[in-house]
Prior knowledge:
Largest interface: A-B, 33 and 33 residues
Number of helices of chain A: 5
Order of helices and strands of chain A: HHHHEEH
Number of strands of chain A: 2
Structural class of chain A: mainly alpha
Strand order of the largest sheet of chain A: 1-2
Oligomer: homodimer
Distance between the termini of chain A: 64 Å
Amino acid sequence: xxxxxxxxxxxxxxxxxxxxxxxxxxxxxxxxxxxxxxxxxxxxxxxxxxxxxxxxxxxxxxxxxxxxxxxxxxxxxxxxxxxxxxxxxxxxxxxxxxxxxxxxxxxxxxxxxxxxx
Amino acid sequence: xxxxxxxxxxxxxxxxxxxxxxxxxxxxxxxxxxxxxxxxxxxxxxxxxxxxxxxxxxxxxxxxxxxxxxxxxxxxxxxxxxxxxxxxxxxxxxxxxxxxxxxxxxxxxxxxxxxxx
DNA sequence: GATATATTTAACCGCTATGTTAATTAACCA
DNA sequence: TGGTTAATTAACATAGCGGTTAAATATATC
Lengths: 117, 117
């Protein structure tokens, strides 16, 4: 078994699973509701498996309501990812500041060709 | 081939690769420098492969200097992850606000037991 | 009890990821 | 030229992922 963060990233490394999470930001949903948009591309058991991966990674929690299994998002792993990202934030923001600066030089070079009169 | 974000998350889903990235926040390093801390646990070709995964995911760039291959971090995929995370931020912060609120109720319940006079 | 709906489990398959060791390539040095 | 260091490639083993279909389980309803 892997460490928690690896498990989280592995769970996020699939577009179907990310779409499932995105759906859950709009509120709880049970398995068949979650599966519906994907049933042209894959079977229901495939979706069940994706949900199990998300559940094992604690990204979602499955509860019980009669024969339905409402799922909801868990915040903790997102927080963990955000915290892991933090040391890199300064780095990439700096990088985009540089892009910003570059774009400003381009703008100034093209001033005479500007659409505005 | 997978989509970019999946490739990024997959690359991050390994503790060795995350450690390599962490090392690179302290500046450029070539392959053997990067490998050194891991050579008790795995072979050099294994590290080479990890670096290739990071490179394919654009998380690092490998350049050339004689027989050395200095590696440096790329900001873009980190930005992409951060952007993907953004819709979830409010969600998990809210969740930790709730924790905060809970902790406050605990504090208030224990007011009489507080260390402060 | 029988049937319908919701979901999971089982058994299987093909592909890819991660590691190994041995060999190879590339660049430098003496 | 020959030797050393740096890094990659080749060939291979193993394990796990993501999908399938078919069967099983759970709950509600008639």
